[in-house]
Amino acid sequence: MHSLVFLCARRLVSYCPGARRALDLVPAELYPVLFQAAFLDGRTLALRDLVGTWPFPVLSFERLLGHRGRRSLLEEKPSKLCIQAIILAVVAHLRRVLEEPCCGTRWVPGCQTPSGWAGAVLLLLGEMEVTMLVLGPSARAAVEGGSSGLAPVLFCAPATREESGTVTLTPPQGWSELPDGHGSPGSRLFQFPDFPTCLFIRFLPSPSERRCRLRVLDMTGLQDDDTDRGPEGMSLWSGTVALAKACIEVSKHQSECLKRGSKRRKGPSGTSAALQPIGVEVRADLFVNGTSYSVLRDALQTGAAGPLRLKCRDFHAEELSVAGTVSLLESLEPAGVRRVDLRFNNLGLGGLCAVLPHLARFTDLLSLKLPYSNVDVRRLTAGTDAGLRCLATQLGRLPCLKELNLGSSRLSGKLRQLLGDLQAPLESLELAFCYLLPGDLAFLSQSLHAPALRKLDLSGHDFSENLLQPLRHLLEETSASLLHLDLMECRLTDARLEALLPALCRCSHLRCLGLFGNPLSTPGLKTLLRKTLVLPDLRLVVYPYPVDCYIWEPPRPPSASDHFFEDVVDEERFAAVSAELCRMLVSSGRADAVWTASLCRHGALDYFAL
Description:
610 residues, repeat, 17% strand
């Protein structure tokens, strides 16, 4: 249910002309709820006005949109038009700043007094304060002509910027302010015994200049669920491209402004003496592939010192060469990078050894994902052992690493060697389809990682008698910490799952269990439901289509990559099974738990969300 304030905000932003005029009068405290209403309803013009006059230094998507009751606006397919409107508003704001005279300075002319003295006032607009310099006759012409220093500074008055944006100043000792009536409206008049009278005009910027204090735009947290986004949503890839193009545009505009003003803004050394305009730092999760590589590279390299600067939190790259991957990693600002996800890049063991040394500069790196890297230790070559040692050494140089994904790399018998140099225990380990051996699971059970693991993915392994007992032992060792377990496509039959249940039910904090793609029957699922009722935190179970719901017997259970479910499963029979499982949950007092055969729910779970 929406609050009364939110409903009023929604009404205001729905009327564009009135909303624009009202922003001059709206208290700063109402901006967040106005932003929420405009974002939810897709009011792009209102969003541009709000961002262009944002009265706070930070605008955070997660803070403003991440928590509304039990739902998140970031999970409701953020509108592409809304995201674009916000980016365009930031670009427009920075273009206005760049186009100001003297790039951050503002001239206010002094008055012409009866004695013939004409002065000039130069306002130096800093981030937190304003300085007013009173210059002697012809000062402005001297400075603009490149003869800075020829005009004497009569005094420097400390000044402050009020909440409204008005600049006020304190006159130096010995100066007195004349009473009202001596100057024009909106001006202040000061007098000093040894100088003619000088007029100081109060500096009142336009509403957008007055209110916009944005320094950080935090766009992290946008979801990238391709299966449920729709044409109106914005993918992480599209958002990255839009931000990169914006950075390049602002950097080009800055260069043009500096060129136009270089002749009239010269310092004593002949170089430009213009003050650097206040910039905006954009924090975002970036996704890049071969198509968008060039534009992101240019944005990171040319915009590093520009007015609009990209700062990455989670970096995702697909289908890039080793050289391209290294180039982008070197262009990222190290501070704040918490995840690097390199998938489908076909790097191989040699490529990983070339890329990983460039990760050591990310001292805050918590998550490293390297799935589908085309590593196969079973194809022994002359450099395999040396490559594994190199890879292990580089992993050991990531002191803060908590999550590691080596999915679809064939690592049979090499897990101890790869993880042996890690300095701290992992909390998330994804080893799907890694062809692990019993010795690999035994190593995990005895390692420092087992008691700390919160997420474990061992999908794609054949848990027959050969691997089932090592898995039971591993679950016992991780039982105190494990929150998320994936055992998809593991050939778990009813009998094998029942043998695993005692160890599984010891994982008292388990929240999510993925069993999709296993040959389980309806009775087996009912047994699983009854036995796991002892797990109070279990809220999501992704179960397979029961084998007794198949129309015809497939050679294997449908997997996550198959698209012929409707040809294999009797929908009416499966609907009856789903309804029965729901009734069992309700009758057991667990109506809040979700049991589903849909992988869409499963894809949203992430280590950082645990």
